[in-house]
Amino acid sequence: MNSEENILGKEKIGKLMLKFSIPCIISMLVNSLYNIVDQIFIGWGVGYLGNGATNIVFPLNIVCLAFALMIGDGTSAYLSLKLGEKREEEAKKGVANGLLLSIIISIVFFIIIFTLLPVLLNLFGCTDILRPYAKDYGYIITIGLPFMMIGTSLNGVIRSDGSPKYSMISMVSGAVLNTILDPIFIFVFGLGVKGAATATLISQVLSFILNVLYLKRFKSIKLTKKDFKLNLKTCLKLVSLGISSFITEMSFVLLMAVENNLLKKYGARSKYGAEIPITVLGIVMKISQILNSIILGVAVGSQPIIGYNYGAGKNDRVKETLKRVLGISTIVSVIAFILFQLIPDKLIAIFGSGDSKYIEFACLAFRTYLMLCIFNGIQIPSGIFFQAIGKSVISAILSISRQIAILIPAMIILGKRLGIIGILAAGPVADGLAFVLAATLIIIQVRKLGKTASKSQALVDDTSTDNVLKEHTVITISREYGSGGRYIARLIADKLGIKFYDKDFITRLAKETGLSESYIEENEQKRSVLTNFEQDGNAGLSNSDELFIQESNLIRKIASEQSCVIVGRCADYILKDNKNTIKVFIYSDEANKIERAVKFYGLEKEKAKKEINKIDKLRSNHYKYYTSREWKNYSNYDICINSDTYGVEKAAQIICNIITK
Question: In terms of domains, do 169 and 254 share one?
Answer without folding.
Answer: yes
